[in-house]
Write a structure and sequence with these properties.
- The complex is a heterodimer.
- By secondary structure, chain A is α+β, with helices and mostly antiparallel strands.
- Chain A is built from two helices and 17 strands.
- Chain A has helices spanning 2-34, 74-78, and strands at 50-58, 101-106, 120-124, 129-130, 133-137, 142-146, 152-156, 166-168, 175-177, 183-189, 197-203, 208-210, 216-222, 225-232, 238-245, 250-252, 255-257.
- By secondary structure, chain B is mainly alpha-helical.
- Helices cover 48% and strands 4% of the residues of chain B.
- In chain B, the strands form five sheets. A three-stranded antiparallel sheet of chain B has the order 8-7-9. A two-stranded antiparallel ribbon of chain B has the order 1-2.
- In chain B, β10 (1005-1008) and β11 form a beta hairpin.
- The longest helix of chain B is centred in the N-terminal third of the chain and has 57 residues, at 78-134.
- Classes of the chains: A alpha+beta, B mainly alpha.
């Protein structure tokens, strides 16, 4: 039986991986640009807005991460062709850090923003959350979908928001959720696949960005002023920098993290 | 005197007019003054009432438009609108039907009117004729009357029945008597039916109307506009008068509300609402009661104000007098920081008082600080007294028994000698009755003996057993500690006894020499790194802390372990960690000594003493077989215990060898001096000390200390000063006595043994004695405030006992249970109420998502969750296994260990009842009978359990080691004995409703009409099944056997190996390859 199984599995694995690869690509590129577009109903003069861009560098040797063993659920194993490693603590090949949540911690309090109407999507694919780190505005819709033919449960563990924990079976309708209070960061887990982990940063403003595989971030649409920018990582702590941006300026701001 | 100069006539020459005039003026002034006082001066409350009503009315009027806007917002919400629309639609849709029914009713009414008149009239006539017939004796007359009646009944009775509603036409109908009555009943019946029909038609309307009204009520905060307008109307009718609560039942007259007018108003009033803080200081009196919930529980009409707040409720002359803040009133208003003292007088029997956190802390501290070691306080540490009382009862019953025995003998004798058989039988019956009564007494005595044993089990000492001092402690540490415990361990509850060097040495020597001199088995060393891990994960930190000052991590209930390595012996520590209840020797209270191996040998018994071997081999009396500590047995292996002990010994700030040697410990000359001091300071109140086991408490009883007359309280030389400075009160005394007891010795000339013995629990920075708490740390102040509050409230109440909180229903179980929960610090690990976080919940380790899953379970609905009989067994042995005890019986996946507390049966009973009562569960519990699964249902449940859609076995343990590596939830095998089916169903439908934050997800089931169905894809077997899926799973869970579980594990393991993402029993479309079918898997 196992012998017969082999060619079938080989056939189906790449098929299953295809959509997920594509999905990942769009997610990563969409995430930073999508968020600031939500900042319409504010008294911000769009002709003067500035931007902050930069990269998050890791100073140290590439950390060795323990391989995730998914064999308690074969569905998860099948979705991956090779070994899977945790995304927490991961380093990009160019010496930068992915999955760093960079956001305006202080300085934007005087502006109010209504939640964007586009939802943020969190996908469960191959028993891994895509994206691993995401930002969302207070009151914005979060659509949680599952591309896995297994049952997940989505269990955010916030401090300031209400905690919930809901089951999502294979093929179940997306869960639609909102967070009512800002919180950096809300860890999300699946109790049935304990390695699954996502982080949700809930902010009152649209000024946040998550670094991707090149370790860069861009925060657009900032009105000129003084800001405290914080970079959050799951494993290496947080760092903040004060910055002043002028009208239409594009400021560069780099963060450097060291092994904890 | 010259004669020509006659004496002047005073009447003529002396005028008193001036004096009269002045007097008259004075009189008028005084009269005016008295009038003024009567109307204004002594009636300050009148001004308060005027001031209040103005502000209040203004506030309400401002509130109306605001509330109207809010109401409008609610009414404009789409939900409300749709409901309103629905209501209107229904009203329209039922209109024709309703009109038809109502028309028919009114038509019937018209007909009924006519028929009723005729029918009742006829019946009255028949009745009166019958009466006549019955009362007539002459036969002839009777018959003629009967004939008349017959005639009358034949009628005809003519009625003009209206034909159609409202047109005035009638038809003539004629009936005989029976027909007329039948027609009347028929019409009534028809009307009844129509009325019922009308109600049915109208039901959707009334339901919807109630729904819309409720919607507004639920979505609108505070009162409706109509209600506010009602309040405004009430203010118009406001009169200036004394407002008082008069409850003669409790001898209560409280006029407080003459000034505190807003206290019970249905709107919440703040100072801001009443003109603001700066406008008039008097408006402070008008705010609402800060905890209206409390007033709901304690109806002010019954409880008044002063029973809780103190003060002089009848007084109205001035604020000071009303608040009782003057010399002639003994019970001044409780100050803000102590106001919860008022709860204590009725809630003395409670360990935990809701709404009163300060008082509850005070109650905790009284226990934790060991106050009850010296001071009796009813309810605290009651076991020793109960043992004595039980002993007395046993003695008394013994006497009664002997007397009954004598009476039996006498009765038998009298029977033997009786003159006739009947009398003899009477005496023999009497003897038999007495014999039965003796056996009842025996049973009762037996119960009391068990009770004694149980009480002994629950008997604890606040401090460690000093008989073990030589086994446990490094000698050089003893005098250092006794000299000043606070200096060595600032957080300790052991107080400082103001001792000089000689006294320290004498006490040390006595304690050292009265300790047992034995050698414990030598223990090989352990691994400190593993020990550290265990201390941090096994739950030790729920009670103990490690680290000093602000760096301390862990609970406050038990000792801070930071310097344990400087004082303890390794071999002892290993035994202690392994089982802290283990004693070196059992103590026989009858012989008043610790038994040795010899005592057992004499009777050829093994030297074994535990709860199953608790009788003295010499005389059969109950022994003390365990250490009197509340620290439980964590059931760790010897290796784990060695690791932990090794780690604890690394906790030290300096080398134990650097302590100065204490050669005097062995000086036998010091022993008797030390004994005198130990007796004087009452050390045996908190410690077990050889030879002093029966010593009583040395302090004064504090049960009613708050109402002790001030004259009887020892202010020593401070009476004058206290009066001048305003602390000649219970509060002033308690605070100072707790902060620095020795201040009351100042200036007194007394020999040393008569100096105050109360030790220092806190360390004030200065000698400025009268400043009370001024020089204490904030934590110390907080503790003193709590203790003072507790003592102030502890009074001999003047109110009837029925006002006290002494419930006799489930609430009593809750009341009694809290004492046990607090005694063993269950709240260090468990959450009982939402918002009451356990110590462990606050530790950094348990903040991460992984950490949260490692927390001990929340016990929010424990009583509804578990079968009480199971709970009793679990609490007695949480390993749920007699031989393998190094494990958790339920949550095997938790590192933190539910320890064995060796609760006495009394405590077990209280705890089980406590949990049941908290969840309003009746006792005893009678498990409901569950419908056994049919063959098909069994297959279905199995299929669902192993399907991809139902992930039960991913988290729940199965007993299979490989599988249980990932388990985060209990084994289903436990369900049958442990759980209640009702609760289980609620749980699987929405676990977050029961335990917020649980790892078990919600949304596993969805509602489909009147049943719950599984939310994920269901196996094909479910097609056509009309039952409730949640019920099905619950029934299955309660039926699972070990065999069935192995089968389940096999099935899912099979699925794992097959590696198929597809559901069983289906084929993969396109490939045409059949996968393993459910039936095939069952066949394995």
């Amino acid at each position: 039986m196992n012998k017969q199984k082999l060619p079938f599995s080989l056939l189906i694995v790449p098929l299953l991986l295809l959509p997920s690869c594509g999905g990942k690509k769009t997610e990563v590129s969409e995430q930073p640009s999508e968020a600031p577009s939500g900042a319409q109903p504010t008294p911000i003069d769009q002709s003067t807005v500035a931007a902050i861009t930069g990269k998050v560098v890791f100073q140290g040797v590439k950390p060795k991460l323990a391989r995730i063993m998914m064999d308690q659920d074969p569905v998860c194993v099948q979705k991956h062709s090779g070994a899977v490693y945790p995304e927490d603590g991961e380093m990009n090949s160019n010496g930068t850090l992915p999955n760093v949540f960079v956001y305006v911690k202080e300085g934007a309090e005087k502006y109010t923003f209504s939640a964007p109407t586009d939802p943020v999507v969190l996908d469960q694919n191959g028993c891994v959350y895509k994206p691993h780190v995401l930002g969302i505005q207070v009151g914005q819709d979060l659509h949680i979908i599952s591309s896995d033919p297994t049952t997940h449960n989505i269990h955010p563990m916030p401090k300031n928001n209400r905690e919930w924990n809901e089951s999502q079976g294979p093929g179940a309708a997306p869960l639609e959720k909102k967070f009512a209070r800002s919180e950096i960061m809300i860890p999300v887990k699946c109790n049935q696949h304990p390695w699954m982990r996502a982080y949700v940063g809930v902010t009152k403003n649209p000024f946040f960005s998550v670094t991707g595989s090149d370790g860069t971030f861009t925060i657009k649409g900032l009105p000129p002023g003084d800001y405290t920018i914080e970079a959050w990582t799951a494993t290496y702590g947080t760092q903040e920098q004060k910055v002043t941006v002028g009208s239409k300026e594009t400021k560069t701001l780099d963060f450097t993290f060291k092994p904890s | 005197m010259a004669p020509d100069n006659p004496e002047k006539d005073p009447l003529v020459n002396q005028s008193l007019a001036g004096i009269y005039f002045i007097s008259a003026i004075l009189l008028i002034l005084v009269f005016g003054w008295s009038l003024y006082d009567e109307l204004f001066g002594l009636r300050p409350w009148k001004d308060y009432e005027r001031l209040f009503i103005g502000h209040y009315r203004a506030f309400l009027q401002k509130e109306i438009p605001k509330q109207r806007a809010r109401e409008k917002a609610v009414q404009e919400s789409p939900e409300y609108q749709s409901m309103k629309k629905q209501l209107e639609d229904v009203q329209v849709s039922i209109k024709p039907q309703l009109a038809d029914v109502q028309r028919r009713i009114s038509f019937l009414d018209d007909q009924l009117q006519v028929v009723m008149d005729r029918a009742t009239d006829a019946r009255a006539q028949v009745t009166s004729q019958l009466y006549q017939i019955e009362h007539t004796s002459a036969r002839g007359e009777k018959e003629s009357l009967l004939q008349n009646l017959d005639m009358f009944k034949r009628g005809p009775f003519v009625v003009h029945l209206p034909t159609e509603d409202g047109n005035g036409k009638t038809t003539k109908k004629s009936y005989d008597y029976e027909q007329l009555q039948a027609e009347f009943v028929h019409l009534q019946d028809e009307k009844g039916q129509l009325m019922a029909r009308q109600a049915t038609i109208l039901r959707p309307v009334s339901d919807l109307r109630a729904k819309t009204e409720n919607y507004v009520k639920n979505h609108l905060e505070g009162l409706t506009v109509d209600q506010i307008q009602g309040l405004v109307a009430k203010t118009e009718a406001f009169t200036i008068e004394i407002r008082q609560i008069n409850n003669p039942d409790a001898g209560l007259v409280d006029r407080c509300e003459s000034c505190h007018l807003g206290i019970r108003e249905p709107v919440v009033l703040t100072r801001k609402d009443l003109g603001g803080r700066d406008k008039d200081p008097r408006t402070a009196a008008f705010t609402s009661h800060p905890d209206l919930e409390l007033l709901k529980i304690h109806d002010p009409e019954k409880f008044g104000c002063t029973p809780c707040h103190n003060g002089n409720g009848m007084q109205l002359d001035s604020v000071e007098q009303a608040h009782g803040e003057y010399e002639h009133w003994l019970w001044p208003l409780y100050q803000r920081e102590n106001f919860e003292a008022g709860c204590q007088q009725c809630h003395a029997a409670d360990m935990v008082v809701d709404h009163a956190p300060v008082l509850s802390t005070g109650k905790d501290l009284f226990q934790w600080r060991g106050c009850a070691g010296c001071h009796r306080f009813q309810g605290y540490d009651s076991e020793p007294e109960d043992v004595l009382a039980t002993g007395k009862q046993i003695d008394q019953l013994g006497t009664e028994r002997a007397e009954k025995q004598r009476n039996i003998q006498r009765a038998i004798q009298q029977g033997d000698q009786a003159p006739d058989d009947e009398t003899a039988r009477k005496f023999y019956t009497q003897a038999d009755a007495l014999r039965v009564s003796v056996s009842e007494t025996d049973m009762r005595i037996g119960q009391l003996e068990v009770q004694t044993k149980n009480l002994l089990m629950g008997m604890k000492k606040i401090g460690p057993d000093l008989k073990e001092v030589r086994v446990k402690i490094r000698p050089a540490w003893v005098p250092v500690w006794i000299n000043n415990p606070h200096a060595w361990r600032p957080t300790t509850r052991m107080p400082r006894f103001r001792l000089d060097r000689e006294e320290v040495e004498a006490i040390s020597a006595f304690i050292w020499q009265s300790g047992l001199d034995v050698n414990l088995p030598h223990q090989p060393p352990g691994d400190p790194a593993k020990g550290k891990e265990s201390v941090e994960t096994r739950g030790c930190l729920a009670c103990h802390s490690v680290g000093e000052g602000s760096k301390a991590v862990g609970g406050w209930f038990a000792a801070n372990l930071t310097r344990v390595g400087e004082k303890d012996n390794y071999d002892f520590l290993v035994r202690w960690v392994h089982n802290p209840r283990e004693r070196t020797r059992p103590y026989c209270a009858y012989e008043k000594r610790d038994l040795t191996e010899q005592d057992y040998k004499k009777h050829s018994l093994p030297f074994v003493f535990d709860f199953d071997h608790s009788k003295c081999p010499n005389d059969g009396h109950e022994l003390v077989v365990e250490q009197m500590t509340v620290m439980p047995n964590l059931r760790l292996s010897w290796q784990d215990s060695r690791d932990i002990a090794s780690y604890l010994l690394t906790l030290r700030q300096k080398d134990p060898a650097s302590y100065p040697k204490a050669p005097f410990l062995g000086d036998s000359a010091l022993k008797s001096k030390g004994r005198v001091l130990v007796l004087r300071y009452g050390c045996a109140g908190c410690h077990e000390i050889a030879g002093l086991e029966d010593e009583g408490r040395i302090g004064t009883e504090l049960t009613a200390e708050g109402s002790k007359p001030l004259e009887q309280i020892d202010f020593a030389l401070y009476v004058g000063e206290a009066r001048r400075e305003g602390w000649y009160t219970h509060k002033g005394f308690f605070e100072r006595k707790l902060a620095k007891p020795e201040m009351f010795d100042k200036g007194r000339i007394k020999p040393e043994p008569e100096l105050l013995r109360m030790p220092d629990f806190f360390e004030p920075q200065s000698d400025e004695v009268t400043r009370g708490m001024a020089d204490l740390s904030p934590e110390a102040k907080e503790q003193i405030v709590a203790l003072t509050t507790f003592l102030m409230g502890s009074v001999n109440s003047q109110y009837p006992r029925r006002y006290f909180y002494l419930p006799e229903d489930l609430r009593r179980d809750i009341q009694e249970g809290w004492w046990v929960v607090k005694k063993y610090n269950c709240i260090g690990c468990h959450q009982f109420k939402v918002g009451q976080d356990s110590v462990l919940m606050g530790l950094a380790r348990y903040q991460t998502p992984e950490g949260k899953d490692q927390l001990p379970p929340k016990l929010l609905t424990e009583g509804a969750r578990v079968n009480p009989e199971w709970l009793r067994r679990f609490l007695w042995n949480p390993a749920m296994n007699d031989t393998e005890t190094d494990r958790n019986g339920v949550r095997s996946y938790l590192k933190v260990r539910m320890p064995t507390f060796y609760f006495s049966p009394i405590e077990l009973r209280k705890l089980v009842r406590f949990f049941q009562a908290l969840s309003s569960q009746p006792m005893p519990y009678i498990p409901p009978k569950l419908e056994p699964l049919t063959g098909r249902e069994l297959e279905m449940a199995r299929a669902l359990f192993t399907s991809r859609g139902a992930p039960c076995l991913k988290c729940h343990a199965t007993g299979d080691a490989a599988h249980d590596r990932f388990a985060t939830a209990p084994n289903f095998l436990l369900a049958h004995d442990r759980l209640k089916p009702d609760w289980t169903k609620h749980w699987i439908l929405d676990p977050a409703m029961i335990s917020p934050g649980t790892a078990m997800p919600s949304g596993l089931f969805k509602q489909a009409e009147d049943r719950w169905v599984f939310a994920g894809p269901t196996p094909s077997l479910f097609k056509g099944y009309g039952g409730d899926h949640a019920d099905l799973l619950v029934r299955y869970m309660f039926e699972i056997t070990p065999e069935e579980q192995r089968r389940l594990v096999g099935m899912s393991a099979g699925a794992l190996k097959a590696g198929s993402p597809k559901k069983p029993g289906r084929t993969v479309s396109g490939l045409g390859r059949p996968l393993v079918s459910v039936a095939a898997m069952h066949g394995r």
